Amino acid sequence: MSEKNIKKSKKKKSRSLSQRTFRTTVRASIIFGLITLVLGLALYSYAVGGQYINTAFSLAYGTSAVLDKVVDVGPFADDVMSRYNSLSQEERDMARDPEHIKEYKEKFEDLIERDDFKQIVGVMHDMLKTGDAYDLYIATYDVANKTMIYIATIDDVETTNYFPGYWEEAEVDQSELDAYKNWDGEEKISNIFYTRETGWICVSGVPIDIDENNNIVTCVMTEISLVDVARRMRLFILLYSIAMFVIVNVLAIFLVWRMRKNIVTPINAISEAAENYIADKRNRKKDTDHFSSLNIKTGDELEHLSLMMANMEKELGDYEKSLTTVTAEKERIGAELSLANRIQAAMLPSIYPAFPDRKEFDVYATMTPAKEVGGDFYDFYLIDDTHLGIVIADVSGKGVPAALFMMVSKILVNNAAMTGKGPAEVLYTVNNQICANNREEMFVTMWFGILDIKSGKLTAANAGHEFPILKKPDGEYEVIKDKHGLVIGGMAGVKYNEYELQLEHGSELYIYTDGVAEATNASGELFGINRTVESLNNTTERNVRAILKAVNDDIKKFVDGAPQFDDITMLCLQYFGESEGAHEQQKKYSEITVDATVKNLATVTKFVKKRLAAMDCPPKAMNQIDVAIDELFGNIVHYAYKGVGKATVTIEKQESPLGVVITFTDSGKPYNPLEHEAPDVKSSLEEREVGLS
Known about the structure:
Largest sheet: 6 strands, antiparallel
Helix content: 40-55%
Radius of gyration: 55 Å
Low-confidence stretches: 156-160, 580-587
């Protein structure tokens, strides 16, 4: 993103922050206003509703009290209901028909002329004037037919159809009926509801006549219109909304102004300082001072942020200065570790077959360090013409200290073995030498054996190392649980026990370090000694290289990419003895693995020439092979890797027809000559382009 686009983005974000503040304030205020409006309306409705309920109930209660003193409503109500019950349903339905309502009314007209009715109406008329109700009536409820039958009615409308005996459909909840039946004389029985004809109304009443079956005969009822309440509530909502609109906008504008002054402007200043800082660093400017000059005085987190940014800028400057030194030191250490790795690899046997002229045995070993350098080591060497020394060991710890301790231990074992001592005496001598100057208190587990090449007798001693695994001819691999002695470096003067194993023609010996059995997968499960033995027994090929490769492949499959925490070292020995046919069973190829560098070309050439000379290769053929080696190895060095990689050269002898196969293997970038233009081989050397001849 260009500097111009960065500034545009910053301004856009600044405006967006103000806009979001304004919108958020408006939304929050609206939500708050709506909540307060709902609560206010609820409280107002509750208060006004209670007031109207009190008014309606007081009017109904007062009317019933006056009627109780002035006139007995019961006989008149009984006469009305008696006449109503005497009518057929067809006659009753006349009350619902406008054309026959008059005829229905005539059936009750003589009741209107009665003195007790006039007294009832007079009392109700007087009571209606004392309250705000618009309707006051006496009625009874027919539960079976769900109808309300009016006994007497007074309202503020001059013309009304409500007369004694008039009825209308009405459905009353059982809970409301129970309230009238069980009325204690004090509870306010009321109901607020909405109808399309009258709008919101409040109805209240009290029972004045209940028969012997606890059924309500008559009740005094009052109705008060809540139309004015609804109108006042609508007016309140309108005025409240206008006030909220004004307050919300004023509040939002004020907050946006405050935010721009106290937040947006300081943020923009910090952002601009950060952009300038990045630009200066891109231009490799040093000792910059962008944040300390901002002088932000908001007294809050933004001021603290600007101070922290100024401090960060200063510390980053100091850090960059030290980082250059640290990086150079790290590169130096990395180079030294790489060199240590190569030195350590050179200390271990790496050219196979190790003894191409010996037909009695074959040996192969591998080591995979957990770090750049490891603490495991192996070695094998001819002590004399008839005895082969074999050692495998595991130094405590990892990295460079373990590697140094490993080299010392390897040299001491080799020197002691060359004096002609037995395995137990070799371990005894090495242990005393290490304990004499072991200030770091390191130790090494070690298995050392000497093979009598003629007889096949293997004499060995174990200093706290893993059990060896032996396969007899036509048998399976089995763990040899030898007696362990104390680790080398643990305590001076420790004696070690020797034991013997008889190797027969076709016997195979597998020794290893604990990195094999303790290889761990992602679930924390160990590879274990049982899987190691199973892997060995599942190997069908009978050469030492294939055996170790099979075990290593099984370990990789089991671990499945989990980190390696310990060095993995293995050695396999096959014993053929001096029986007939031993030469045919000996491995027929030699191999060397080196870094793909120009200086190793001489090493590879020397390796191949030595093997070809042993096969009596003609000088002319050897010279032609030298040219091919130079070309092939040179291509790997210059084109296979971007950096330094590995190259493996294998020589395999063929019997019929007599010859050799030399194979170069690398893991670098593949090259397909068919994808490139064919070189010009017809022009003269002067006319050809470089690299195409």
